[in-house]
Amino acid sequence: MDNYPNHQFILLIPIFLIGLSLITTFFWTKQRQCLSVLWLGFALFSAGSVLLTQSLIIPTHFHQWSMLLGFMYVFTFIALVQSISLRLKRQISWTLCLFTLVLMEVGLFYYSFMENNLDRRVVLVGLATALVFSHQLPTILKLKPQHPIDQWLRLTFIMVCTLMITKAILNLKFLFNANFDHYFTHNSSWFILQFFVLMFSIIFSALIIASNVKDVFKVQQLEIENTKLQERLHLSQDMHNTLGHSLAQSMNIISNSKKNLNNQQILSMLKIFRDDLRQVIDSSSSLGATPPSTPILWGAPLRHRFSQILDELGIHSEWIFAAEWLTPPTQLECLTLQRVAEEALNNIIKHSHATHVIVKLYFSASQHLILEIEDNGIGFDIDILKVTNISVGLNNMRLRTEKIQAQMNINSQSGKTLISVIKSI
């Protein structure tokens, strides 16, 4: 028996291959589109398992394990070829692979349990693996990969395939007259074979993973560019829908006015343009942002902004918000409700002469989200709003609520004005 490395040291190679398979599989779980990496993980795990099993088998019991080991050997190469093929945008022939497996298993059964001929079992497995590995050679020879890494993968595949075909030819020569000892699981030849398996496994793993990583970065870059384009389109559409409508509405008011507008009316229109622009900027900058987790957090900035102003004017304010969302609103819905409340509160401060304001955000029994702003001011006549500077602001509020498919109602009389926004959830 030849001198050979320590048996425990030999076991490190299959254990390393199994560990490498777990790493590649973990990589696949992060990038599910990389199927070639998943098949590489199958190949590495199968290679490590078959080497580990064969290292632990007693040579005299090899015939009992030959069918299982033969299947694992061939499956290893099927998985590896499938991994390389997928990476190069091709598919293996499953019909050929299954046919090869069946023929090999029949041959292994015969030579294991009928003749107990180890030499011919080894030759059969070698021929089967060579056939599985080389059947993709004509297709891959015709390929011209665009990727430099894929080109190296293709060249490595051709080199390994050439070696396996050469070995298969030599196997055919010894198929019926071989008379050499294949109990090499306890000599230096077994270590050399494992070393070559390890070396080519690492090469193929490095090339397949590197090429997939490069593609992942390319896909991520395209996704970033697409996101930027979507944001530009969203901004353009928002500018058109919001500012465009306000401009058209203001032009219509000016053209239909029977007398010149005063400075206060013009200033009110300009403020609406400013608020619309602010809404567009807030909406665009908050794309993908998370809405406030509770109605209380939604109302906190609004309350902080207006409480001091209302107190200075001697207006008592109440702020009533639901504790939790029944259905969390979108960021745009949160912004719209906030802008409507701001507009209503600004009008109260400017025109109502109120002494008491109530702001409520709650859910009705019919599962509607309701925003209410109520004051005890002098009120106004809704029918004559069209000729006042408040009309533009209220119409703009109505436009915003329509964008989120909500309904705005206004009820006003001396001593009580109630503006409510009702949104189905």
From TrEMBL:
Superkingdom of the source species: Bacteria
InterPro entries associated with the record: HATPase_C_sf (IPR036890), HATPase_dom (IPR003594), Sensor_HK_TwoCompSys (IPR050482)
Catalytic activity: ATP + protein L-histidine = ADP + protein N-phospho-L-histidine
Segments forming domain Histidine kinase/HSP90-like ATPase: 336-417
Listed transmembrane segments: 6-28, 35-58, 64-81, 93-111, 152-170, 190-210
Keywords: Kinase, Membrane, Transferase, Transmembrane, Transmembrane helix, Two-component regulatory system
One MF term in the entry's GO annotations: protein histidine kinase activity
EC assignment: 2.7.13.3
GO biological process: phosphorelay signal transduction system
Keyword Chaperone tagged: no
Enzyme class per UniProt: transferase
Record PANTHER family: NITRATE/NITRITE SENSOR PROTEIN NARX-RELATED (PTHR24421), NITRATE_NITRITE SENSOR PROTEIN NARQ (PTHR24421:SF10)
Name of protein: histidine kinase
